[in-house]
Design a protein that fits this description.
This protein has helices spanning 8-17, 39-58, 74-80, 82-85, 102-109, 121-130, 174-178, 181-188, 233-250, 296-305, 331-342, 378-389, 402-412, 422-427, 448-456, and strands at residues 21-23, 35-37, 63-65, 87-92, 99-101, 147-150, 154-157, 165-168, 194-203, 218-228, 258-262, 272-280, 283-294, 311-312, 319-320, 323-330, 343-347, 353-357, 368-372, 394-396, 416-420, 429-434, 440-444. By secondary structure, it is α+β, with helices and mostly antiparallel strands. The protein has a seven-stranded mixed beta sheet, sandwiched between helices. The chain is globular. Glycyl-adenosine-5'-phosphate (GAP) is lined by residues 172, 174, 204, 206, 215-216, 219, 221, 223, 286-289, 326, 328-330, 332-333.
Length: 458
């Protein structure tokens, strides 16, 4: 059972009201399916990326980070297969002029009982005709035939029209990791097996984006490629499945809200693939993917670039092109899952309802809020704020009753509220209120940095 309190409408409205996510280009009437992260949202998303990087780069043996260019030589996308195969089956409704994905139409019509991964475009066309699947917008049956639609955004480079060349906004970060395989190996002297990780923007001209930040045309990916010897790939594939799941459990996801989904129809590069799905407010959907990509990527880039990407094993003297186990997760999609999982409407004694985000303290935008009990305690509160700011992201609020200030912090998931009161002036202690239990303890101000460090570690 999904978190029963949460609906997409509630999340969108909380995010807008509390500075987490705003509609993109809002004052111009918006720009469909683009979103801007606000002051609180940017901190949450940065913390998600930091937690991922810490786990999959800093704490991983033999893993290294890169930050490759978004714009890459167009030949990269020929080698990767994106120019020919990165497409979705689209159909246009000739009556209301809306565009749809054939696979989505069939999945909705069959209520998920037909696995469209197993169908060719011709079989999908047959299904839609045989079952008279109508346009979900206008209700008519007036389709164009299925056509494949490439999802890459094209642009051009060059200062004059004559010298323009078609280039693409990258649709995944992975290729930046593959083309740097030799650079990373040479400069780190890493021995296979080793990993390359990257976090960065990717762009896809999705036919049916939607569900808030779940599927957008511009998004961030966190991708990790593990280069290993053929024969060890199956073992590492299983290991990455476990590591990917453990990361989510450690972030605080309930095990019953996550499940593996093995792919039956595989991408052109994959030998084995699965997703971890999360029970979002709109149902089970892919959160991340794990692929055994074989030696496809490095072999293709070696062929198309003419540069050797063959690894020389320093111990055995053997030469080979490594296999790749890929673990890929969208930062925005993870953020939506984190928000859904954390959201609660809690009925308090006396009947009041508080909205609270219970996420892991490491993910919270602010580790603590400093609150003077009364405005005349502001100087002492601001002095404490300045000290804590050197080590943590903290916020300050002196407006309204203490109860209202607690509620505001609960809504954005601040794990601790630190209140300065008149006893603070006497003995240097403060009240620390816990977001989840609402219990309060008294601590000396000197103990706060260690307390917050321990509580907020991931
Ligand atoms: N390099 C492999 C790759 O890109 P993918 O399954 O297409 O594989 C990986 O994407 C992850 O990126 C997905 O599991 C999802 O978390 C995220 N993602 C993909 N398309 C997205 C979109 N349009 N909007 C938001 N996130 C997306």
């Amino acid at each position: 059972m999904a978190n029963s309190a949460v609906t997409m409408e509630k999340l969108v409205s909380l995010c807008k009201a509390r500075g987490i996510v705003f509609p993109g280009s809002e004052i111009y009437g918006g720009m469909g399916n683009t979103w801007d992260y606000g002051p609180v949202g940017v901190e949450i998303k940065n913390n998600i990326k930091r937690a991922w990087w810490k786990r999959f780069v800093f704490e991983s043996d033999n893993s290294y980070g890169v930050d490759a260019a978004i714009l890459m030589n167009a030949r990269v996308w020929e080698a990767s297969g994106h120019t020919t195969s990165f497409s979705d089956p689209k159909m246009d409704c000739k009556t209301c002029k809306t565009r749809h994905r054939a696979d989505n139409l069939i999945e909705a019509h069959s209520k998920g009982t037909v696995d469209t991964d197993l169908l060719t475009n011709e079989q999908m066309q047959e299904y839609i005709e045989a079952h008279h699947v109508c346009c979900p917008v206008c209700g008519n049956f007036n389709w164009t035939p299925i056509r494949t639609f490439n999802l890459m955004f094209e642009t051009s480079r060059g200062v004059t029209d004559e010298s323009q060349n078609k280039i693409y906004l990258r649709p995944e970060t992975a290729q930046g990791e593959f083309v740097n395989f030799m650079n990373v190996q040479r400069t780190t002297r890493a021995k296979v097996p080793f990993g390359i990780a990257q976090i960065g923007k990717a762009f896809r001209n999705e036919i049916t984006p939607g569900n808030f930040i779940f599927r957008t045309i511009e998004f961030e990916q966190m991708e990790h490629q593990w280069f290993c010897r053929e024969g060890t790939d199956e073992e590492f594939y299983q290991e990455y499945k476990k590591r990917a799941m453990q990361f989510l459990l450690d972030l605080g996801f309930k095990a019953e809200h996550l499940r593996f989904h093995d792919h039956e129809k595989l991408a052109h590069y994959a030998k084995e693939a699965c997703d971890i799905q999360y029970l979002y407010p709109m149902g089970w959907q892919e959160l991340n993917g794990i692929h055994n990509r074989t030696d496809y990527d490095l072999t293709r880039h070696q062929e198309y670039s003419g540069k050797s990407l063959t690894y020389l094993d320093p111990v055995t003297g053997e030469k080979f092109i490594p296999y790749v186990i890929e673990y890929s997760i969208g930062a925005d999609r993870l953020m939506l899952a984190v928000l859904s999982e954390a959201y609660e409407e809690e009925t308090l004694e006396g009947g009041d309802v508080r909205s609270v985000l219970h996420f892991h303290p490491a993910i919270a935008a602010y580790k603590a809020a400093v609150l003077p009990l009364q405005k005349n305690l502001a100087p002492q509160a601001k002095a404490l704020l300045a000290k804590l700011k050197k080590h943590f992201s903290v916020t300050y609020d002196e407006a309204g009753s203490i109860g209202k200030r607690y509620r505001r912090q609960d809504e954005i998931g601040t794990p601790y509220c630190i209140t300065i009161d008149f006893d603070t002036l006497e003995d240097g202690t403060v009240t620390v209120r816990d977001r989840d239990t609402m219990s309060q303890i008294r601590l000396s101000m000197d103990e706060l940095p260690t307390f917050l460090m321990e509580k907020c570690a991931f």
